[in-house]
Amino acid sequence: MKKICLCFLLISNVLFSQDQDSAYKNASLSVEERVDNLLSLMTLEEKIGQLTTPLGWKMYSKNGDEVDISELYKEEIRARHIGGLWGLLRADPWTQKTLETGLHPREAAKITNEIQKYVIENSRLGIPLLLEEEAMHGHMAIGTTVFPTAIGQASTWNPELIKRMAETIAEEVRAQGANVGYGPIVDLARDPRWSRVEETFGEDPYLISEMGKSMVSGFQGNTAEDLKSGKHIAATLKHFAAYGVSEGGHNGGAVLVGERDLFQNYMYPVKEAVNSGILSIMTAYNSIDGIPSTAHKELLTNTLRQEWGFDGFVISDLGSIEGLQGSHHIVTTEVDAAAVAMNAGVDADLGGNGFDDALMNAVKADKVSEDRIDEAVRRVLKVKFKLGLFDNPYVDVENAEKVVRNPEHIELAKEVALQSVTMLKNENKLLPLSKNLKNIAVIGSNADLQYNQLGDYTAPQAEDNIVTVLEGIKNKMPQANIQYIKGTAVRDTTQTNIPAAVEAAKNAEVAIVVLGGSSARDFKTEYQETGAATVSASEDEILSDMESGEGYDRSTLQLMGKQLELLQAVVASGTPTVLVLIKGRPLLLNWPSENVPAILDAWYPGQQGGNAIADVLFGDFNPAGRLPVSVPKSVGQLPVYYNHWFPERRDYVEMDAKALYPFGHGLSYSEFEYSDLIVSVEGEGINTRVNLSVKVKNISDKDGDEVVQLYLRDMVSGVLSPVKQLRGFERVSIKSGETKNVHFEILPKELSLFNVDMEQVAEAGEFKVMIGASSEDIRLKTIFQLSENITINK
């Protein structure tokens, strides 16, 4: 009997030990319990491996139709115990992945399954990978849906539409087996010389935060079950912090902002995203007041973690840990770079060269504690468990082709493009154009180049995926005689034929001139290690069109090459001219604004841009896009954002200080009348609510959308405050003759500022409410009183 009991005890102990060693595989346990168990089983090498995210596109090989994981990937698992891959499915000139050598959706789903299967079966603990992908305006992979870039998304002023777009992108990413999407980008764009304006939601913290929250919700869903549903992904906010306002517009350069400006403006949309439950945040290349973002412990740990309660993981931007030594020169060794970044609050290394052995050596030298390593690993593992990767790391290979770029997604891409088109000018109601036109000239550098309308961070495209403006007009007007003359390139001046364009215009009833910029990379472009393009200005070769996109900062904002000369010649022909702009940043439009009767701004409108622009041109869609960024009159005015602090800006000797086209500007084929603004203040303390309502009537004979914008001014404040700031907006569809009531609710945080003690407070006193159609087109004003100081909880 004693022998039987002893055997039973031994067996029980073995089974208990096995249960303890695999508790992290038990889906019935909480995320915290599973993370605790798994972390307790890991070696230091395995922990540091979980923080390593190498370049993914090197981890497979493709030979014809055969796709297999590479020997490099197997070695990464064996030797480095990596925890994730970045850009496994990415294709572009930098990665050298083409339509032939890159992965199509079914192949992508197959290889991600094999990637996960291999790590699960060939590593000691079987920890699945985070597969992280660029996803700001569509998944940056072959065959996916391409939406307008972020500056165009913001031009819709429609957060619900952007949420639907983000849900679609997330579904496409997850269907192919990846599980993290990079976005939203919440950088403020206050200097259009900066190369990455196109990736932002513009210049205003409130608009950015509303769009950013929509993307977080669309990517991640709203519940824990959503993240595991196979249709959602973890979102990664970019770039922390204040990336978009470096001196001189130099990408990744020094940022000189005060603490109050930093928190009042640049950190506002970040905090809103954190409050929305975002799971990952990426550091930036810049420094802030002399401290690199990737080494900024005050922001990464004190602000993000301790004050705001962020519990996701922080990942470096590509190469930014190494950049502490090579770019910023604040350390002398790789070990010190790894230690500074880790101790500041960076949890994971994008690129795989910043932590790894350097971090291991930092731990051995007592420069980083193993407790801090555990903290970082815990944050990464928690996201993996929340995504359900330990329970279901695989996807249905056959489903990928059904989901990715399906007809509903293509239609949504068109809807976002339609709502983003912004009419800047429409003199004598030239637009919409008559569908009875017989002869149309389509002219310009961007009229028929598909990559020029897609923006940076876009994969190679099959030709029939993209509808250019010329194709859209032909689709709309099959009975018309349409003559296309390119006329000139975006930058290059050697391939120009302006006389042919003028002749085409003279023979037409209308000339549609499509100009602007380009972020189209090509396989001749040289790239930095970070993936940013290297500017080329060789006089011996035909210049690339690329003048925007990461790395392409500018010193001027004129239309490049001979584009303005082309436009001037076409206008001089006497034929009514419509200018369509496709570009990634605000450009100087002084001459067009004075001399061209109709101007549409489409930014980079994505794969359905041509059809969307044609619908607007010919009246099948009534435009209601609004500018998310101010358009300057001169580089000498910069910065020219609308919500600057008091005092009011004085004019220059040469010109006034106002923007050519202000923030929020955009015209419609309809006209709207505002009336009956009512304001009431209810509640007290943090529960105070300011309720506003206004009536908006469509007084035209066309149904249309109006973007009703609410601006506030703190009349007297203890520190400087903006001359006006957006604090509410709504895009409203109103039929001809119809009146709608539009309601807004303002919370104390939206009335707040950071006082002399850097406390966030809504100060008692008068606030002016301004309701209108843009930051300058104010239709109604009133005053309300806040009766008490209200401290905002951190």
From TrEMBL:
Alphabetic keyword roster: Hydrolase, Signal
Family classification: Belongs to the glycosyl hydrolase 3 family.
Signal sequence region: 1-17
Keyword Nucleus on entry: no
A single MF term (Gene Ontology): beta-glucosidase activity
Organism field: Salegentibacter salinarum
Gene3D superfamilies: Glycoside hydrolase family 3 C-terminal domain, Glycoside hydrolase, family 3, N-terminal domain, Immunoglobulins
Protein name: Glycosyl hydrolase family 3
InterPro entries noted in UniProt: Cellulose_Degrad_GH3, Fn3-like, GH, Glyco_hydro_3_C, Glyco_hydro_3_C_sf, Glyco_hydro_3_N, Glyco_hydro_3_N_sf, Ig-like_fold
Stretches assigned to the Fibronectin type III-like domain: 706-775
Protein origin, superkingdom: Bacteria
The keyword Signal appears for this protein: yes
Family annotation (Pfam families): Fn3-like (PF14310), Glyco_hydro_3 (PF00933), Glyco_hydro_3_C (PF01915)
An annotated GO BP: glucan catabolic process
